[in-house]
Amino acid sequence: MSLLEPNDFDEVLGGPELLNTITALQDICSSATDEGSQAGREMLKQLVEQLRARLNDPSAPFDLSDSLERSKIQLKGTLALRAPTEIGEAVAASRNLGSGILWSDDFMNRHLMMLFDRSEHNATFIRNVIEAFLFRAITMMLPSHDLLLVPEDRGGPSGSLEVPRMGGVDYTLIVKSPSAAKIHVDVPNWLPIDLDKSQGERIDSAFFVAVADGPLESLGDSQLPAVVLEMSARAKSLGKSHVRGALTSGTRWVFIALELNPDNGGAKYWVSEEVEFLRSLIGARDFAWSKEGKPALIAAILSTWIQQSFEELKEDEWFFTRTLPVPDEMGGSGE
Fold first, then answer.
1. Is-above-0.85 flag for pTM?
2. Domain-by-domain residue ranges, the chain?
3. How many Å is the Cα radius of gyration of the chain?
4. Which residue has the higher pLDDT, 127 or 5?
5. What distance in Å separates the CA atoms of residue 123 and residue 129, rounded to the nearest whole number?
6. Mode of pairing for the β-strands spanning 203-211 and 242-248
7. At the top level of its lineage, which domain of life is listed (predicted)?
8. In sequence order, which residues have a C-beta less than 8 Å from that of residue 44 and are 6 or more positions away?
9. For 194-203, what is each residue's pLDDT tens digit?
10. Which range has highest mean pLDDT (26-35, 77-86, 177-186, 193-202)?
């Protein structure tokens, strides 16, 4: 049973994305009530209070970091990209995956260059760039995997916002058996947010992608807490201890790995440094975007992390971990 309905917010229906926000809150609420979590309900109450304050005063800060703390979700550490000498061969090898077919590495490069040369840099452009990387990552995994890429339309206009987006998931990539994949293709109204523990047992992986609010904003501080909150809710709904995802503006990608605490008392997460490619790197006729091959690197990370989303973050091919020091303890960093 849902705790919130849209008519509960009649007095604050002024924001063009409020219904979207309510939906995101309901997702979190459903996860909390399934476990009988008073802490989850309290967190939801605090989020609603912040929304109301924002509507009354658009200049009021909107910070979800306190909600992470109340939910006992802690930043465990950061993920630093390995040196080009360590990952260069793997990136080069990844370019050969899916060669000669649609969304090969060459096709992705040509498509991205066309987008940058001919497209207006708006919300549609951002999604087209993101989808180019997702299509390329899927191609790199075929034909050994069956995959679903499901856009999650949270509705609402894309103009100026009175209410900030909650940072909810915009795409879910699901790796599953052919029979399980067919079930969801045949159900027209199915959405990844409907996945429960029984369906979680039938899929191999689910990777979540959130679109950043704008291409020029630095990723992280403002939107990341909401993405982490939703990833935590999705993990609980699926009955999984580990999930992975990304927050991206198309040209910038931040990768997130989340682990639920075994005693159902919160979670911990790791956040990568920004992996970025620049417009100035695009345009060479040989498509040599950069010495590091950043577009190919982003696609390679995606293809790996999509498959490993339900796995514990241990020795990663692309990143090494920097654990944050525990308060009142010395040291605490390491790989």
1. no
2. 73-323
3. 20
4. 127
5. 10
6. parallel
7. Eukaryota
8. 3, 4, 25, 28, 29, 32
9. 667 777 788 8
10. 77-86
